Amino acid sequence: MKKLKPAAYALLPLAVAMAQPAAAQDTKELKVGVASEATSIDPHFHNVGQNNALRRHIFESLIATDANQKLLPALAESWKAVDDTTWEIKLRPDVKFSNGEAFTARDYVYTMCRVPLVENSPSSFTVFTRGIESIETPDPLTIRVKTATPQPLFPNNMTTLGILSAAVFGAGDVKYGKDGCENMGTPPKSSDFNDPAKAVGTGPFKLKEYTRGTHIILEANEGYWGEKPVWQRVVMRPITSAGPRVAALLAGDVDMIENPPIQDFDKIKGAGFTLVEGLSNRIIYIHLDQFEDKTPGVKGTDKNPFKDVRVREALSKAINREAIVERIMGGVAQAAGELLPYPLFGTTKDAKPVAYDPEASKKLLAEAGYPNGFELTIGTPNDRYINDEKVAQAVAQMFTRVGIKTNIDAMTASTFFSRRNKHEFSAYLAGWGADSGEMSNSLNALVVTPNKDTGGGHTNRGRYSNAEVDALVMEAQRTIDDAKREELLQKASKIAMDDYALLPLHFEVTPWAFKKTLSYTPRVDQYTLVTEVKPAQ
Amino acid sequence: MSEQAATPAPAAAARPTDKGESLLLRHVAAFFESPLAVIGLAGLVVLVILALAASFIAPQNPYDLAQLDIMDGTLPPGSESLAGYTYWLGTDEQGRDLLSAILYGLRISLGVGAISVVIACAVGASVGVIAAYAGGRIDNFVMRVVDLQLSFPAILVALVLLAVFGRGVDKVIIALVIVQWAYYARTVRGSALVERRRDYIEAARCLALPKNRIVFRHLLPNCLPPLIVVATVQVAHAIALESTLSFLGVGVPVTEPSLGMLIAKGYDYLLSGKYWISTFPGIALVAAIVAINLVGDRLRDVLNPRLSR
């Protein structure tokens, strides 16, 4: 920020007062204070929440998701599995890119070819294209995709990939090849998209201006095929610290903010703003080392106590999840009994959180041979999840009450994740957001036996292993039939939870705050989509 | 502190012009002439007693997680706990009684301040006095190291060190010692350079006393007055630095909050009107630092020969 002279400070309130629009919400401009800035305009650069949210405004995907992550037709009118390894997609006719070019199957092929060509991607989208064997385009509005193995999540994968215009980058008649495509022209670099002339998609908005660290300005796409956007112009300002973000909202600098801190809810409501909260697909959990025979963070016993299911059950019963939700999260969370909140795909309605029962917990510990408990250190990040360090402390408090003297090792997220990945913690607190919004994602990440070749259990750093769960998840990942697949996932989830594979704590709830004249429906994926911000009725 | 203050007296007796006992008494009397200093000293004594007696007078052991109840979290001052006693200063978000946490926090803050200063003082004074006595290349080398050290902001060095060491009271002390020893080395060298030209050192040399005896028994005790002044002020600095580090989240473990960490915890709640979590530890911290500084200022006036009447 530039330094202002004292005299300028004196004028500031006046300037703010003059800039205030009339009470009724006009629909010319919307200013949003976002909590984290997109790392690139390139829709395929970095698979992370803020980028994916921004991408949806400019580059649409074949299939969209609603607030509960149910699939909706977007650029694809319909899709079906012809057989176990073939998907057929019918494209929407008469769709135009923001530069006036028509959208056809060629643009889809071009996009699938371009995703693996992105350089230096911190978190790549190739996981969504890797299984594609071949793509055929019998006519400009029909696509047939063959996959190497059955891919029931193919439609979900298609919700993550924004479609580029082949013509903008000088591509010819693109042919898909698994090991490289033909007639690709000059594939763009990620930084090319900073130029609004190159950032061409079919979305409801087009990029007007991008100044890193300051703002992203979007403008309504007049030729949009769907419902016309309400806002003519949208300014997204990254304000990464929570305090200044709230202050910007209260001062009228922005109309809406992401993620106001729980502590400030009363103040925001008191100042006449609306707060909405929505359950997210992010679970906060504690994972326990169930692999080593002697685990580094446990003292007072020679064994690894977490290999005993009775100890894991005792720990789960020692946690008062409702108290954490009420006291630490200010009621803005939901106690968890599974890895995803009901009614997302693969969840069970009666999967209730494990009840708080310290007496039963002590008894189980005594049965398992630890009547005097042991000493434990829990690793936790202190700047990654909402109140993460405070939640870990509350859990430590509860463990200590049943006789397990618990310490907290709190650190910044980058240190935490690198130490966790080296298995330095016997117990750690972390979170997992299932971006596909269905159970196979969560189970595969957190519970399935770690296996480098299949990519299974990639975030299962407690190294829990249960052949039955592995088999069920594996089968589900091959099953195209939705009903059957859901049943398999429900079963796998129940087995893992009954075995206390990890200790679920709560689902994060995402809050938004905005002017009384606006309305917004909370989303499970935590995205802020301007298209869904409407003037209040 | 009083023990250290007493040590220069016998050594000073070596000087022909001074009468040992009367010098100390004169200094003590001069100290008590300032009412502000007396208030500071009284406040400091009270705080030290409170800190030392924390485990006996605090209603709760805030570091024993089994005694905390999360259901008592963020209660305002004067609220009653589920177990029936009163939280006179309220609780933090973990249900920690703030009165108890402040008493224990004072113990950490004063303890870390005192211990780090004593160690840094010992290290710095030894290095300084040796450099001054040896002179030449050794002196040059040591003083360039000191210059280098002093050219970095203390907080920056401490942050880097703690990022490497990890959290813990012992590690904070180590970091503070590393950050502070240079001040003492410089101070002691300054006065030792003056003292070593005096007659009593010459006399000691003529008696062929061993070097280490001359340095540590004759030279060092006579350099103590400025050192005491610097040390007193540095205790306050050390406490402030420890609080800063804890506030930034790299100091003490989260389950054993010091004053700085309590203030940091409350910072999250300041906008929402839960003032007590930050305010009371803040008052305690300010009181401790002001008291030490009042005492330190007066000591400087008393021990500075240029200001003596």
UniProtKB/TrEMBL annotation, chain A:
The keyword Cell inner membrane does not apply. Coiled coil: none annotated. It comes from the Bacteria. Residues 71-450 form the Solute-binding protein family domain. Residues 1-24 form the signal peptide. Keywords: Signal, Transport. One of its GO terms (cellular component) is outer membrane-bounded periplasmic space. Its main location: periplasm. GO terms for molecular function: peptide transmembrane transporter activity. GO terms for biological process: peptide transport. It is found in: Periplasm. InterPro entries: Peptide/Ni-bd, SBP_5, SBP_5_dom. Belongs to the bacterial solute-binding protein 5 family. This is Peptide/nickel transport system substrate-binding protein. It comes from Chelatococcus caeni. The lineage of its organism: Bacteria, Pseudomonadati, Pseudomonadota, Alphaproteobacteria, Hyphomicrobiales.
TrEMBL record, chain B:
Residues 106-296 form the ABC transmembrane type-1 domain. The keyword Coiled coil does not apply. Its main location: membrane. It comes from the Bacteria. It is a multi-pass membrane protein. Pfam families: BPD_transp_1, OppC_N. Keywords: Cell membrane, Membrane, Transmembrane, Transmembrane helix, Transport. The chain crosses the membrane at residues 36-58, 108-133, 145-166, 219-240, 275-296. It is found in: Cell membrane. GO terms for biological process: transmembrane transport. Gene3D superfamilies: MetI-like. GO terms for cellular component: plasma membrane. Belongs to the binding-protein-dependent transport system permease family. This is Peptide/nickel transport system permease protein.
